[in-house]
Amino acid sequence: MNVLPARANRVLLAAALGLAVAIIGALSIEQAPSAAIVRGDFPAFYTMAIVASRGEGARLYDLETQRLIQNEFWPSLNGSVLPVAYPAFLAFCLEPLAALPPNPARLLWTVCMVLCVVMTGALAARTSASLRGLTWQVVVSLLLFAPLFLGVLGGQIVGLSVLLYAALFFLDRKPSKEMDLPIGVIAGLWMYKPHFALSVVVVFLAQRRWRVVGAWLVTCVALWSLGASVAGVDWLSRWYSFADGFAHIDLVTNAPHMTGVVPFLYVISGWFQEAWSGRAEMWNALTLLVALIVPTYLFRISRRGELNTVNPGLIAVGPLLVLFAPAVNFYDLALGMLPLVLMFRSNQSMDHMIGGALLALSYVVMFLKDGGVAGGSFVFAILSTYLVIKATGREGVQRS
């Protein structure tokens, strides 16, 4: 069993008590509509639940319908709206939330996301031999990471995303044909964030894991059917059209707060939407070229036999997403940090120092982001990606 130094355990225990107070306090205080409930995506999730419960799925991607529902429950929105750009099958899954008023529903949602992070920590501790016996310490460290903590308490779905990502690592720690089917199902369930799920599927395609891809396809068909039961058989095309338009609006509005190459280049270009349209091909080509650096490096060192990780492709997915996915926000940095957690060496003081520094730096980046300083999240993403690349050159994740 792995043992952390007594000082590290005492620090993490104190942090655990502080986190418990913060989480309980956040859950027990009724949030005004102008507070965190608006900043996160929860109004979008609740809107999907209401639409499904009222049998109005045909209007799920009608912006005016979304506006009316959100202002019905949160009058202080004053006519504004948080567009609902998630796939229709999520509405089917979220429909039970409509049985609760908004604040209790958000309470339940947040509790579920906290539990997702706890389960993520448990899976990570069982995936890496270096983390064996350190479950509560891993859970506390995950919750101490500002993007994940802010996302969970801010009503985002990031807790479920990191859980699905961790589940992929856990199921693939000892590759076998029996595990290919559940891995494909997990990848399919991640299709509420299609660019995340498709990145994982590309990894397994490259590895010729056809059973994984087949299970993913079957899961996708099942999810499409659930969406069709809510929003009609043509929901996929209507969702894509709506989501594509929302992505452009989201970039204009939130680029300074996002992570990744695309929003960073968008901000520094200085001309915003008009100039960006003319430069789209150049930026896309540049993004693709830079994106090839990480998988190329991993391929080279794996060919030399220097990589001892659970799955080098899965290790690369998180950093690649936070740097190159078209719509990645501050809280999604948690996906780039999970590989670092898995490659943490409990017997190395340097890893303890780096881990503590990254946790502290994540709060600095959060304040910079909230202060409107563009590029903070992008720089943090580059740093974490560099550390992942560097870690793959040593022993990496030793299978449990």
Task: Describe the fold and architecture.
The chain is mainly α. The chain contains 20 helices and no strands. Helix 1 crosses helix 7, helix 16 packs antiparallel against helix 17 and helix 17 packs antiparallel against helix 18. The radius of gyration is 21 Å and the shape is globular. The N and C termini lie close together (11 Å). About 3% of the residues have low confidence.
In terms of topology, how is this protein built?
Layout: H1 6-28, H2 36-39, H3 42-53, H4 63-73, H5 89-94, H6 102-127, H7 135-144, H8 146-153, H9 158-171, H10 177-189, H11 194-206, H12 210-231, H13 235-254, H14 261-269, H15 272-291, H16 293-303, H17 312-324, H18 333-342, H19 349-370, H20 376-392
Structure, briefly:
The protein is mostly helical and 400 residues long. The chain contains 20 helices and no strands.
Shape call: globular
The secondary-structure element order is HHHHHHHHHHHHHHHHHHHH
Mean pLDDT: 83
What proportion of the residues form beta strands (DSSP E)?
A: under 5%
Distance between the termini: 11 Å
Percent range for helical residues? over 70%
Number of helices: 20
Unreliable stretches covering 5 or more consecutive residues: 32-38, 271-276
